[in-house]
User: Fold this.
Amino acid sequence: MRLAVVSSDGENVDLHLGKGSSLYIYDYEDELTFVEHRTVDIDVESKHQGSKVLKACEDCDVLIAVEYGFKSKIKAENAGIKLVTDEGPVDDVLKRYIDHYNFMKN
Assistant:
C-alpha cells in the first residue's frame, strides 16, 4: 500500500489538501518505508487546487491531509484514492492509520 501525507516540513501533517505543495510518500507492506518527497506547484492565492495534489499522488492508495474539499473527495474516489483527515506528527499519523488498517483487515 502506498501512502502520501501532506506536510509543509516532512515532520507534521499540517496542510489542507488544496494547499499541499509538499508531499511525503511511504510504502507499507510489513513495515513502513519512506519512498520520496514530491512537490506540487500550488498558487497560495488560489482556491480549489486539490486536483493538482491528487494528480501528483495518482500512484498512491491513501492520501492524508488536515482536511479536504467536497470536489477533491469526489475526484479522489474516481481516481481510487482514499482520502483521510488527520493532523499531527507524520510518524503518529501514519501509525494511527496503519493500526486502523490492520485492525480492519483482521
